[in-house]
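fwd from M.: "can u put these together and see what the complex looks like"

so here's what she sent:
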Amino acid sequence: MGGSTPNSGSNFSINMLNQPESSENFSKETDRNKPMQDFQELRYGMQDRFYLTGEQCQSSPDPVPLPYPSQHISATGIAVGNASRYLSPPLPNCPYPANRAPVPGAPSYTAPGAEVYSAGADPFSAPYPHSFPRTSLYNSSLPGLQVSGKVQILLCNYQLWAKFHKHQTEMIITKQGRRMFPFLSFNITGLDPSAHYNIYVDVILADQHHWRYQGGKWVQCGKAEGTMQGNRMYVHPDSPNTGAHWMRQEISFGKLKLTNNKGASNNVTQMIVLQSLHKYQPRLNIVEVKEDGTEDPYLTTKTQAFIFPETQFIAVTAYQNADITQLKIDHNPFAKGFRDNFDSMYGNSEGDRLTPSPPDQQNCQQLVPGTRYQPFLHDQYMNALPQGRYYNGDRTVSHASKHRDDITNPHRWFMPPVQQASTNRLDFGSYDPEYTGNAFMTYSMKGFPPLQATPHALGYYQEHPFSSGNAWGARGTSQYHHSKAGSALTWYRPVADARPTLINLEEKSKETEDSSWLEPHSVKSADSSDSGLYEIDCKRRKVSPYTSSTENSPPNQNGEKYEKENGSDTGYCSFYTN
DNA sequence: ACGCTCGCATCAGGTGGGAAACGG
DNA sequence: CCGTTTCCCACCTGATGCGAGCGT
């Protein structure tokens, strides 16, 4: 990869570097509106296989109750192909799968990108995802997976994003720039291995409102301010590079920083300028370019953008929602200093504890032989969540026993016994069986041989279900030393054709009783564990005026209602009551 | 002697909290 | 006055360099 940076080594396309506000940047987009016919075939071919019946929809609660208003983009995201290919609108009462089930004859929509580009409007303020018409498009039924043609994009840390999204993600912006957490991380398949691509992330306004945190809720408050100067895109430092390179490892944007400093001149290529109290939607863009990195006019139709709605966030200069703060503290290793002393929660020694220590205290970086397996472990396994402290005595015991049951459950763990027994991290991960509720992970573990070593520069972020590779971008680091593993995507990487493997995934999911991703399993459980957060002393965090975080985030009520109604966590409603 | 591994110290940089400053 | 932003702090992680120890 050569460590080329957008503004140094590469002859990066002028279109890529121009300020997006420039109306002519994407003036070639007339081509974008010309759908690829083969894609249509592919799409409907997939559709046959992925369409979920109404019954399935009804019986498949949204695994990630993403609370989009009805007109919002799909629960799993929009694959914003350049050729005006969009998801079908959600089916009523079918919050999750329906969105993934393209309905032939559904109202035709226009691609946000296409519209913006062709109209010459500011592509970073105009395309409110919900407001954009969409054409029906095959959308993967797998959480965090987007498919457009042969290209498949997997949001690696989808589970973590979903957890934050439930509470309305907030991202701190500072003058010097603040990293995103969670950060954007993708696995890509289906690119032409020999073709060259630029990959970048831009951040667009998610709606046209100014937001304010009031009474424990995010409420709209006036209109968003107009277009704002400053960089709104972050080009992956590996760009340009071959499809083979992009598919070889995880593509992470961990160094992407958010700032509110419009005049930021330093590290401008690493910073995206945003406005506080506005809601934004990151978007992954893949542009096929010539070998030297310049954009080939004849290739512009191969530009594709992918939106994962769960990555939506509100930019803030200080956290507003205590739920978000706590999630950040619990998941971000750099915020470890703000975690409570979980040991004090037990008052007994490590050996007596029924629940495991946070992974960081158990040498959690020593993993399954191969980080390529680690990504399959739920983020909650990997991160430093002090799980045990989330439960009082009874629940702790309960979970511990569930853990034991779960380890022996072949539907849950497909790791070879040796691997199961050999890693603290895995043990930790399996401690809460609910966290295994990700079929993605489940299948991925099923008998995949270790593959090539891949550098993982982000050891402490290995929580992502699919994290792998160079999480900090182009930089290889010491994590590489103990990262010997297979490719996270190998098991579904048919570069030549995405379909068969997706089908395999789908079929596999039907084989198992643990079709967890059809249920609000992982996120729900993750949240139910989170719920216990607030049973512990809240002295270090702001206290929400609401008794439950459920009420804090209006957009998320559906999903959270689910939890409450199911009484999955009796302590849930006791948050903030201290 | 050489190469390798490991542990330790140091440094840079990231984190949220909280108080102060700012601004409408 | 109040909401928002900025700055500083203590704490943490990760990268790096160095030296000790060990095996060849």
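replying to her w this: Chain A has 16 helices and 16 strands.
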